[in-house]
User: Fold ABC transporter ATP-binding protein from Victivallis lenta.
Amino acid sequence: MNPNVLEIDGLTVSFFTDEGEAKAVNGVRFAVPRGKVLALVGESGCGKSVTSYSILRLIQKPGRITGGHIRYHGADGMELDLAAVSEKDPRLYEIRGNRIAMIFQEPMTALSPVHTIGGQLSEVLFLHRKMSKKEARERVIAMLGRVGIPAPERRFDQYPFELSGGMRQRIVIAMAMLSSPELLIADEPTTALDVTIQSQVLSLMRSLQRETGSSVLLITHDLAVVAETADLVAVMYLGRIVEQGSVREIIKNPLHPYTHGLLASLPGLHGRGERLPSIRGSVPGLLDTPPGCPFHPRCDFAVKGLCDKGEPPEERTIGERKICCARAEEMTVLLEKEKECRMPAKT
Ligand SMILES: Nc1ncnc2c1ncn2[C@@H]1O[C@H](COP(=O)(O)OP(=O)(O)OP(=O)(O)O)[C@@H](O)[C@H]1O
Assistant:
């Protein structure tokens, strides 16, 4: 069996607007291993959602997948390139919601306000598992209990509006898990929730993932969420992956200046009242991406003539991580020097 449930290779997705072709995803390559959580992280607009929507072929006009592969490797041997398959191919319907499920930031996008919770959840089992009404009711009530919904028998007949945001997101997770997907794509699943509820929902997702052995592609802009939830991380900037590897290695020792900047701006790393450093400048538009490394105009380590010219740097491997930075090999030393400069001199 392939160790990866999903392999994305050279994925390119463009939006064809009146102003021109905007490459929202530009040659992205990563793999989601079986039984692992991979987080795709980056600032707003870097292409995380477009990447995840592409997997289920949910990109709408004027957007289109223009290149690359999205290879799904089923545990039962089913193989499919989701980037190439026809929209009408019945295998695509089988994959959506059954083998690959998706949960969104706002639970109400997935739930119908006019149907009961039990009715909506049972539908998943009628559709994908062809279960009887009685069997489905039992399975749904058990799953509601598993995701921490109190009094699941009573909740079965209630409507989504009768529940809090955190409870609704648990319902959506229950709905996704009912079909025992091999891969769960969670697009900012906790962003709309209060901080205390966020952490409960994340640990619920993590424990369900461990219990079922499914894989998760977690989309988030929050490195604190990554540290808490994921095994692997891929950092995206302006439609490209700039650094990827294990969470342990990358959070402890980020090498790409962008990852370094994202981590440095996390509140947990700084003392009370201390001003948080931020990455200078802002993300350029997709129609005027700079030549060379897309991050160079905001990078403190950019070198004229090296980082601002030609094609973006190619991916290279350092230890177990992959990084796209022309100065990757020197970064450990450069970051160490920078840290020393920021430390107050000893008297
Ligand atoms: N329908 C569309 N038409 C034109 N451009 C689009 C469209 N949808 C997305 N884009 C562009 O694609 C780029 C990537 O968007 P995407 O939603 O994937 O970013 P993201 O990293 O998920 O950000 P966020 O966290 O804000 O959702 C953005 O520059 C966005 O403006």
Remarks:
- The CA atoms of residues 124 and 178 lie 7 Å apart.
